[in-house]
Amino acid sequence: MKMQTIKKNIPNLFIFIIISGCTTVPITARRQLTLIPNQQIISLSRLEYKKVLKENKLSKNNSQLQSIEKVGRKIANAVNDFLHENDMKGDFKWEFNLINNDKIENAWCMPGGKIAFYTGILKYTKDETGIATVMGHEVAHAIAKHSNERMSQALIANFGTAILSKTMQSKPVKTQKAFHTAIGLGTKFGVVLPFSRLQESEADRIGLILMAKAGYDPQQAVEFWKRMKASKNKTVPEFISTHPSDEHRIKNIESHLIEAYFHYDPFAKD
């Protein structure tokens, strides 16, 4: 296909892609682009999860693992209720593991419900409610299909960059290098990072609802993030961070507490 023909059809192609790949994030009702079939994402996630577990040492601390599994079961029940209330379908085959690494202060949930906590974050979670704060947030990413959205954005960005690069082939080498540098910075700071912060805020909001439905006091999410904030030696400027600043995050969570308490079930069963 000639370049002129490609350029002529780009607007129509992008319109088709956007219309056919648009879904809606629950609760926030934000429109998002999800181009990759859900089963493909889940299949890749399961393979990656097995790889991570194989390459890392799992914790033998039964007490800590039991706490994570207990909270996980309650969050899983809350997810089922959440999906039903929002007329959504889910393909979650839950699995919870604790990786023995005190240097990594993190946790994550892959699409499909494959969850891992690192022992390093447990000094901040303190108790089951702290674990529920983190787990609710990470599971919310999976419910909101944020991984699919990020991959879809990357596909669009790479496609657009490739087309634009074609038009620069007749330009001097220095001009091409400057162009690629500008595209890289523009994509990173103009699209990827700000959008990631938006996804983090969405996960905070949905996560509050999940932990509340699971029987955990959502107010304790604020206390968890205050502990995280106090642990940091320096603050990364928000505009170059994939996460909201601690101050912004805490204020955002506080603004959604009333909504979360509407779903609070202190008698939620395991």
Q: State the low-pLDDT regions, or none.
A: 1-11
User: Looking at the structure, what is the overall shape?
Assistant: globular
Straight-line N-to-C gap: 59 Å
The oligomeric status of these chains comes to: single chain
- Number of strand segments: 5
Walk across the major sheet and give the strand order: 3-5-4
Largest sheet: 3 strands, mixed
Q: Sketch the topology as an H/E string, one letter per element.
A: HEEHHEEEHHHHHHH
Task: Report Rg.
Answer: 21 Å
* Average pLDDT taken over every residue: 83
Structural class: mainly alpha
How helix-rich are the residues, as a percent range?
A: 55-70%
Q: What's the structural domain tally?
A: 1
Strand content is 5-15%
Helix count, per DSSP? 10
Can you tell me about this structure?
With 270 residues, this protein is mainly alpha-helical. It has one domain. The chain is built from ten helices and five strands, in the order αββααβββααααααα. The chain has helices spanning 3-20, 38-55, 62-85, 122-125, 128-143, 146-167, 173-213, 219-231, 246-255, 257-262, and strands spanning 22-24, 31-33, 95-99, 107-110, 114-118. The strands form two sheets. A three-stranded mixed β-sheet has the order 3-5-4, sandwiched between helices. A hairpin with a 6-residue loop joins strand 1 and strand 2 (31-33). Helix 3 (62-85) crosses helix 5, helix 5 (128-143) crosses helix 7 and helix 6 runs antiparallel to helix 7. Mean pLDDT is 83; it is low at 1-11.
